Amino acid sequence: MKLLSHLDGELLALDGNALRRKRRTAESPCTPHVKVDGRAMLAFCSNDYLGLASHPLLIEALREGAGRYGAGSGASHLVSGHSRAHVLLEERLAAFMSPHLESAGAISFSTGYMANLAILSALGGPDTELFSEELNHASLIDGARLSRSSVKVYPHCDLAALEQMLHASAMQKKLVVTDSVFSMDGNLAPLPQLLALCERHDAWLVVDDAHGFGVLGENGRGALEHFSLRSPNLVYMGTLGKAAGVAGAFVAAHETVIEWLVQRARPYIYTTAAPPALAHALLASIDIIEGGEGKQRRAHLRSLIRQLKDSLRLAQWQHMDSGTAIQPVVIGENEAALRAAAKLEEGGFWVPAIRPPTVPVHTARLRITLSAAHASDEVERLALALNKIEKEI
User: Where are any strands of DSSP class E within 134-239?
Assistant: First the structure.
């Protein structure tokens, strides 16, 4: 069959460029100590930044939520699937983010990908110019394509270029869209300066804080708290399956924006609502993030980040300058990155090799992610292994 032959050829091309991805099967809960494909490993690859995915309180809350609300929602939010648990979670999230948003409201989604598609497709349109950061996540790129807006891409963290684009735009509506923490580099967008530009040019600033929510800020309110930002121009997306340890995402913004998403966001309107039990478990998660335990976990995570920086002694590979839980080590070519990941695996470490198109060509890397569930000695062992493997390769 010609169609299958074509796909076989494309797959062989991926093999030839060391670009075929491989799924690994985890056979245990999401913790640093996992069983993968039958083997015990020390994982430095999850986005469970606070170590809440297997927290006993969340497990019990999920069990309680299933007993109270059942296993599924049964319909979309606007039919019959909008549960009391969803209402309580959205009210809690709106209150949690209210120090940074005027007249804050919140709306929950099944995934961060869906949330980003919803924001950009609902706020964009033929009368809109959308300014997208060069290194934005795929969900923001796809959302921009679906928005029917005129899309301009500005260079990474280049405020001068963005200002010129905004000044030249004659469109009625403007959206500036950026990740807060860039998922493959670990660095932060210059959000204060971006917000100042948006306020000056009457533009929305859409912030994807997938890797900042729960981690950044004194109380875990993410990048907005980290930078002490507050503005009606902000539209904030936070995920709930990373630092929050469960699943889903939310958008927080002025209540008028939230109502518009309810009315016009197709990824919200035309999909079955997430199980209410997840929303019930997330209420416990937000309590931990905001409380004393969350502060302790964030402090421990910061100490691990400092420790890794101090312990790596790399001569050829580049440990990127990141103050977040994402600690990439750029190796360069795909084959070398795969060899490094394989060497780490031989030593019992699970660290993925990230290759194009996720990252630019010739910048294949090891994406190390730290968690508050890691111990100091485990980070030290990883650093020693990396120092040794670089010399061997």
Answer: 150-154, 173-179, 204-208, 234-239
Q: What is the DSSP letter of 275?
A: P
Domain spans in the chain, listed from the N-terminal domain onward: 23-54+292-392, 56-290
CA–CA distance, 381 with 165 (Å, rounded to integer): 47
Q: What is the pLDDT of residues 119-139, one digit of tens each?
A: 999 999 999 999 999 999 999
CATH architecture of 23-54+292-392: Alpha-Beta Complex (3.90)
Locate 354 and state its tokens.
Answer: 């990230």
Catalytic center residues: 183, 211, 242
pLDDT at 393: 84
Q: What is the DSSP letter of 100?
A: G
Strands (E), 234-290: 234-239, 249-254
Please provide residue 371's backbone torsions phi and psi, each rounded to the nearest 5 degrees: -135, 150
At 318, which helix (H) or strand (E)? Answer: strand 318-319
- With 0-12 CB in 10 A as exposed, 13-18 as middle and 19+ as buried, what is 2? exposed
The span from the CA of 217 to the CA of 213, in Å, is 9
Distances (CA, A) of 168 to 134, 155, 161, 345, 352: 19, 16, 11, 51, 42
Consecutive H or E run containing 334: helix 334-346
| Surface-to-core class of residue 357, CB atoms within 10 Å of its CB (0-12 exposed, 13-18 middle, 19+ buried) | exposed
Position 222 scores a pLDDT of 98
| 206-231 pLDDT, tens digit each | 999 999 999 999 999 999 999 999 99
Chain segment 90-104, per-residue pLDDT in tens: 999 999 999 999 999
Tell me how far apart the alpha carbons of residues 366 and 265 are, in angstroms, rounded to a whole number. 36
CB contact at 8 A, 147 and 130: yes
pLDDT at 377: 98
- Residue 370's pLDDT band (boundaries 50, 70, 90)? very high
- Predicted pLDDT at 202: 97
Structural tokens at position 16: 């030839």
Do the domains 56-290 and 23-54+292-392 match in fold? no
Q: Note the CATH architecture for domain 56-290.
A: 3-Layer(aba) Sandwich (3.40)
Q: What pTM did the predictor assign?
A: 0.96
Give the pairing type, strands 128-133 and 150-154: parallel
* Residue 189 near residue 218 (C-beta atoms within 8 A): no
Q: What is the CA radius of gyration of the chain?
A: 21
